[in-house]
Amino acid sequence: MALMLGLSAFAQIESAKNLAPKGAKTSPTWYPIVQDVTGVNFLDPTQTISTADIRNAGKCMVIDYSATWCSWCWVMHTNGILEAIKNQLGSQVEVIWVESDASTTDPAEITGSGNTQGDWTNGGTVPYPIINDEGFNNLIGNSNITGYPTVVFVSPTGYWCDVYGTDWGFGPYDASEAVTAISALLTQYPEPGVAPKIDIDGPTMVVNGNQVTFSANIVSVDEVTDISWDIQGATVTSGNQSSITTSWNTDGNYTVTLTVTNTTGTTTKTMNVTVFSWNWGNTMSYASNLSNADSKASAGYKIGSSSTWGVMFPAQFMNGRQYIKSVDVYAVGTQNYTLEVYQGGNNAPETKIYDRVVKGQGEGWMTINCSGAVALDQTKSLWISFTAPNGAGYPMSLYVDGNSYYYCGDPNSCWTKYQGSWMTMASMGYDVTWAIKVTTGDQPNADINTVNGVEINLYPNPTTGIVNIDAEGIESVEVMDMSGRVIMTSNESSIDISNLSNGVYMFRVNTVNGSSLQKVVKK
Questions:
Q1: Which domains does the chain have, with CATH numbers?
Q2: Which residues contact 438 (CB under 8 A, 6 or more apart)?
Q3: Which tens digits make up the pLDDT trace of 258-272?
């Protein structure tokens, strides 16, 4: 089908700063500069820096809007990001560092005194000018500097894009990544008299039945006169300006095609989309189609002293899933990760039913067998989350085929705990899918009766009433029916179930060493 949409060549996407995750977008969104600006070079007061002069000379600019007190700005500074861009691309790119915060009033803070991270001039040796004038913000407008650092690329034709914390840009750690990103932008910026440069922002992997949105990313100085979509095999639910929302009801491979025309010419872009379903009663994963051989991990984001990332499987998919066998995560490093399993809640997890600290095994998929099968309430949503300390571990998003990012289009694939509150990365403007899988079962496993090698015995079994528990360090015992509903709790080593109907029950024994789930027959 083809859908004609309203025209919108430029649309701003705001996102949280100081995060540097990768996403599904493969090209930047461009905006016209507000006005050219001038400023005095802090390192050489006789030198005036004019953005108009730089653009008229046909050169691009990389401008770092920072604050002397900003720790993430300092990380980027100490890793030599701007130096690398200047030293390797200086013939084509002017690099400028701007003390952008109006509350920073003491010039000495730039050289290491007062409210500052250190000497931003490196003893006066940095190879780029420093501007101590927030008036330089007017190039892109103060409203577009929503956090520090804000790093922008400015073209000679008068357009800019954000390059910090974006998948076409760079983060604060890797200078070579920054050089590669800026090198690519030297051939991508908007120019008059050319056909539109376009891309499609959206997922390449979609869960069957879920609604997903595809957006047109259009770079065009000349007036855009037509935008059309051709979505193969899908049901289109809405279209608004340069985006379209759709869903598929049959697994398979499909195409999404965008065609954009301006007064100079026409450009067509096609992306391939794979629609998949979860394996009912076994493995649930928003990353279900990836194996060890074809999956890769990319650094996610870091907030505060630790990072938490998780996935949520809605209650509507829980029928027939009576317990958890194992959880898989694609992780990096050998630090400790905290696995937590919750049930209930659509916007935040409610009740914790299992947790465990596990040691990372390097980079790759890691299988965590639960210490005793974890019984599930099939009427409630299921949350799986991991937490790792910053500097040691970090969330994973997946990509395949080199730099083609894997994103399933479902916000429940990328929950995170940010400043004490749960939210999706999608709500912050980042399209990612965490590498987390959970394998469930539909039959209790009576053979699981040890925790960390320590045997836990329940006897007599079968029983007519009393069940004795032989285990060290008992913290609590939960008795559940076969639907996973908890019907009794205790912290004793002997439990009387004589008042229960005859049948099969699951005993979850929580000890200081972990949890064990065992089947008990009442007769």
A1: 31-185 (3.40.30.10), 197-276 (2.60.40.10), 286-441 (2.60.120), 450-522 (2.60.40.10)
A2: 283, 284, 285, 313, 324, 326, 327, 328, 382, 384
A3: 999 999 999 999 988
